[in-house]
């Protein structure tokens, strides 16, 4: 049984890590901009919800295309969702579709690396 306090703390730490990953992207790509830390926190929360609720449905609906492209279509889906969140959050700007694909790729790599370094794997 998972202790609710530990679960909530891990959720909070993951949220902050993902916001930090978002804050790092504008330093690596000029086409992705964040206005402030609050925009990063809001965008990280919405990205988490979108990736939890919408992404699995899109992956299931596009399974034939994903299979045909040997999995490369997942990058398109990730980019579209990243771009969608940028349209929803003021202070979070993505220049275009390919910038969103690159930003989503960098976001996933940076957040994975930070989660690996900071969180214990249990």
How would you describe this structure to a colleague?
With 122 residues, the chain is mostly helical. It has one domain. 76% of the residues lie in helices and 5% in strands. It is built from 6 helices and 2 strands; from the N terminus they run αβααααβα. The chain has helices at residues 4-28, 37-53, 55-61, 63-68, 73-88, 97-118, and strands at 32-34, 92-94. The chain has a two-stranded antiparallel ribbon with strand order 1-2. The longest helix is centred in the first third of the chain and has 25 residues, at 4-28. It is globular. The chain starts with a helix and ends with a helix.
- SSE string, helix = H, strand = E? HEHHHHEH
How far apart, in Å, are the first and last alpha carbons? 13 Å
- The helix content, as a percent range, equals over 70%
Number of helices: 6
How would the global form be characterised? globular
Mean pLDDT value = 94
Strand content: under 5%
Number of domains: 1
Strand order of the largest sheet: 1-2
Characterize the biggest β-sheet: 2 strands, antiparallel
């Amino acid at each position: 049984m998972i202790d609710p306090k530990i679960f909530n703390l891990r959720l909070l730490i993951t949220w902050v890590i993902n916001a930090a990953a978002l804050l790092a992207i504008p330093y690596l790509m000029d086409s992705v901009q964040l206005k402030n830390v609050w925009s990063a926190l809001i965008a990280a929360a919405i990205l988490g919800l979108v990736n939890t609720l919408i992404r699995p449905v899109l992956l299931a609906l596009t399974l034939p295309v994903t299979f045909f492209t040997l999995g490369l279509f997942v990058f398109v889906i990730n980019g579209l969702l990243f771009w969608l969140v940028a349209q929803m959050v003021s202070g979070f700007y993505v220049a275009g579709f390919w910038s969103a694909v690159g930003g989503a790729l960098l976001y996933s790599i940076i957040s994975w690396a930070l989660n690996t370094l900071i969180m214990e794997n249990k």
